[in-house]
Amino acid sequence: MNSTPPDTLGSKAAAMLGALLDYIGIRLQLLRLEAEEAKGGLVRKAALIVAGGFFLLLSWIGICAGLVGFLALKLGWSWWAAAFLVAGSHLVFGVVFLLLAAKKPKNPLFGDSIREFAKDRDWLNSHRKKD
């Protein structure tokens, strides 16, 4: 007697569904691993940025107050004119820094997953054209 099940449409569909679910599971594992790596690095980086930014802000406030007083005294300007000069220079530097921050990163997050999805899309497109 033959103990192997017959090669029916249902068994082929079940095998294909199993392969598809395995494939999706592997992709989700890769995504989960990359998310964990990104989370650990991003949380630490965010905490350091917040702490560093806080102390830089405190020192910068003191420097700006001193600069306004210095400009008012040395140039004979009123304090508000010196304050506008300092604020205007901050506006220019702020815009420049925001424009630099808007650039795309060299190494985007989830790079491996994005490349794998692009390969998958290309593979699917090549097989659709054959049908």
Overall 3D geometry? elongated
Average pLDDT metric: 86
Rg calc: 30 Å
Query: From N to C, what is the helix and strand string?
Result: HHH
Structural class of the helices, strands and pairings?
A: mainly alpha
Percent in strands: under 5%
Tell me what you see in this structure.
This protein has one domain. The longest helix is centred in the N-terminal third of the chain and has 67 residues, at 9-75. The protein is mainly alpha-helical. The two termini are 38 Å apart. The chain has helices at 9-75, 79-101, 111-130. Helices cover 84% and strands 0% of the residues. It is built from 3 helices and no strands. The model has no long low-confidence stretch (mean pLDDT 86). Helix 1 (9-75) packs antiparallel against helix 2.
Write the layout of secondary structure elements.
Elements: H1 9-75, H2 79-101, H3 111-130
